[in-house]
Predict the 3D structure of the following.
Amino acid sequence: MILTTTYSEYKKISKTARQCGLVPFFFGCIKIKFLKFKPLDKKYDWVIFTSKNGVNAFFRGAEKGYINDKKIAAIGEKTAVEIKKLFGKKPDFVPKRFNSKDFFKEFKNNYNLKGLNILIVTSNLSDNFLKKSFTTDGAIVDNLVAYKTLRPEISISKKQRLVKNIKNSFIVFSSPSAFKNFIDMVGSKILKDAFAVPVGLKTKKSMDEYGIKSFFVPSESTFDCVFKSIKDYNF
């Protein structure tokens, strides 16, 4: 099984993959650059984190204790765990399904959005779905770009190892940017010999745009769900 995430993420999830009887192979397609940002003077009611990288970037760049008097939302379980780990508090809201559309729908059903001041911590490649949705329903929203998602360089030996290992293997794309970077790095033809799996609907959509069929889409947008689904798949 080929994992296309960052190396730091790979180190964390490869153990779980092995516990599911899988043999992980690292082919990193993204790297993260944390950005500096100005002190946040505005009074926000909510801070929304859309990824673990956003949590890490915010923890590095925000003033200590900034979120102590604010409500916190996490778009997924892993992001929520990272918030607890770094900030010492559990998020006030985590959706039942870990994607932007379900996040907004559930949040809207639980809170009155009109006049709510919201800060969304995001990356340079994130879309504006949440900001547009919250704004349409009367919230006052700012996006904070706290990190950049970049494409790493690829060596000839790295590409050769990929070609050697990809046939009849699962390849897991952790995000739309990981998938698009993969295409830029090695092209799409190589995927004809593999079982491509997206982590989330946004990644599936990116694959669909390139004509790459998803072998399956996990019921939850997590690596744990992907690994378990592969383990339990009835071939």
